[in-house]
Amino acid sequence: FRLALIQLHVSAVKSDNVQRACELVREASAKGAKVVALPECFNSPYGTQYFKEYAEKIPGESTKKLSEVARECSLYLIGGRSIPEEDGGKLYNTCTVFGPDGAMLAKHRKVHLFDINIPGKIQFKESETLSPGNSFSMFDTPYCKVGLGICYDIRFAEMAQVYGQKGCQLLIYPGAFNMTTGPAHWELLQRGRAVDNQVYVATVSPARDEKASYVAWGHSTVVNPWGEVIAKAGAEETVIYTDIDLKKLAEIRQQIPILSQKRCDLYGIEMKK
């Protein structure tokens, strides 16, 4: 099946971002995409100072548009961090998924909050405004089961291992790595998660905006279960496409059967809830 990643240029105007995202989803559908993913922070600038201002409830304004365009194009739509979600007085970094009938199939709240301090380079603390999610998020398609994470979630190998154990063959991480962590770890982490679990891994970033307060690395990428980069964007707004070959995935797992050769008598990873 064909996967499309939309590397969107995000402005400060929510309605413009949502409209442009829907236009690019339609473009991807016209080119045969059956699963389409939007980047983290697709409808608002990224930054703790923006989360409260742009927050919505789910369902709400932005998710209604995503549901409509998924139904219109009859595809699976991963809504990036569609919105800062407001629920019960708390804010979450939330990714929604809609099916070809427009129904919401999954709602992933970012599990691991990005609190870092790299002296002289970047300091950022999502927990100042956001609360963490507390669950894994998977959804079924006629093609394969898909597991979801958001940005910083990709650094935690255990999360990807659980998804692999639960039968996911594609992991999708909307993300917005910055100009320090992006060149260092963006591709490295994707290739690691793909090889460790013999799955396809797709990451979708906003386009780079040098004038923004937080500058995203860009370079939305798809990695196959052999650890090869099979599609990669530059820094600008674009849509990249790749055909996900589940036969190749099965061949790799047969040739190097790590999933059946794990020593579960010595170690293990479990999903607690």
Morphology: globular
Q: Which CATH class is shown? A: Alpha Beta
- Label the structural class: alpha/beta
What is the overall number of helices? Answer: 6
Rg, rounded, reads 17 Å
Assign the CATH architecture.
4-Layer Sandwich
Strand content: 25-35%
Low-pLDDT runs of 5+ residues are none
Structure description:
One of its GO terms (cellular component) is mitochondrion. Keywords: Hydrolase. It catalyses: 2-oxoglutaramate + H2O = 2-oxoglutarate + NH4(+); 2-oxosuccinamate + H2O = oxaloacetate + NH4(+). Its EC number is 3.5.1.3. Belongs to the carbon-nitrogen hydrolase superfamily. NIT1/NIT2 family. With 273 residues, the protein is α/β, with parallel strands linked by helices. It has one domain (2-257): 4-Layer Sandwich (Nitrilase/N-carbamoyl-D-aminoacid amidohydrolase). 27% of the residues lie in helices and 26% in strands. The chain is built from six helices and 15 strands. The protein has helices at residues 14-30, 48-54, 61-73, 157-165, 181-197, 246-255, and strands at 2-7, 35-37, 76-78, 83-87, 90-98, 104-109, 115-118, 122-125, 138-140, 145-148, 168-174, 200-204, 221-223, 229-232, 238-243. The strands form three sheets. Strands 1, 2, 3, 4, 5, 6 and 15 form a seven-stranded mixed β-sheet that branches. Strands 9-10-11-12-13-14 form a six-stranded mixed β-sheet, covered by helices on one side. Helix 4 (157-165) links the parallel strand 10 and strand 11 (168-174). Helix 1 (14-30) runs parallel beside helix 3. The chain is globular, with a radius of gyration of 17 Å. The two termini are 31 Å apart. The relative contact order is 0.15. The mean pLDDT is 94.
